Amino acid sequence: MGDQYQVITAPLVNVRITSNLNSFMSEKRYDRGLTIGDLKGRLELVTGASAGSMILEVFDDNDKLVCTLNGDDSALLGSFNVEENYRIHVTDNSKKMGEFEDVSKVEKYELSEEEYSKRNESVRAFMVKNKLGKYNEEEQQKLEEQKRALEREEEEKASKITVGSRCEVKVLGEPTRRGEIMYVGKVHFKPGIWVGVKYDEPHGKNDGSIGGKRYFDAPMKYGGFTRPACCEVGDFPELSYEDDEM
């Protein structure tokens, strides 16, 4: 008869772990059959506190102190009032706050280029063995040829774009813009040939200058740079309000 009124406690309990040594909180699941000594050993890995000097306090959902897990390290966790989602706060006054979060004092391990090249299990060794990426000479040669072909195509297109011409600029994902060609040539901020445009409307990004270097004059937000492939020269009149309405 008495067994039907017995309270059965779950063998595992989820608890939140905080510490005076760091600013983060973690969630852990522990067996209620753990001794307090074993629990302290596990909390060393979580908080960096020393088992021999840590103080354990249990707080409920309202952050009210319930009990302390100190004294007999052979006592079982299940013998204390530690309920689901309670918080165990670890205090270790022998160490400083943030001591284990400051990585500036950690000596970094550096491997020389020569030593790394000797390793057979490295990513580089795998790529060399399987001729992947930059270690595939044939593929790299094809990419280089494609790059040169695109450069020639860009130069040819740029040679037909003259300063003072009207143009229409079409960039994927952006509205079509019209304006006047103000500059054609290389720039200091990116490789390749670029076209400087003074737009009819303030749909640009600058005034014809970037990083303190001026390429042409335009009102602020009326100037911009685009690739020759995005720029079409022709008799493009300035868009009027009526055109936009249509």
TrEMBL record:
Residues 185-227 form the CAP-Gly domain. SUPFAM superfamilies: Cap-Gly domain, Ubiquitin-like. Keywords: Chaperone, Coiled coil, Cytoplasm. GO terms for biological process: cytoplasmic microtubule organization; post-chaperonin tubulin folding pathway; tubulin complex assembly. It holds the Pfam family Ubiquitin_2. It is found in: Cytoplasm. GO terms for cellular component: cell cortex; cytosol; microtubule plus-end; nucleus. InterPro entries: CAP-Gly_dom_sf, CAP-Gly_domain, TBCB_Ubl, Ubiquitin-like_dom, Ubiquitin-like_domsf. Residues 129-163 form a coiled coil. PANTHER family: DYNACTIN 1-RELATED MICROTUBULE-BINDING (PTHR18916), TUBULIN-FOLDING COFACTOR B (PTHR18916:SF85). This is CAP-Gly domain-containing protein. The lineage of its organism: Eukaryota, Metazoa, Ecdysozoa, Arthropoda, Crustacea.
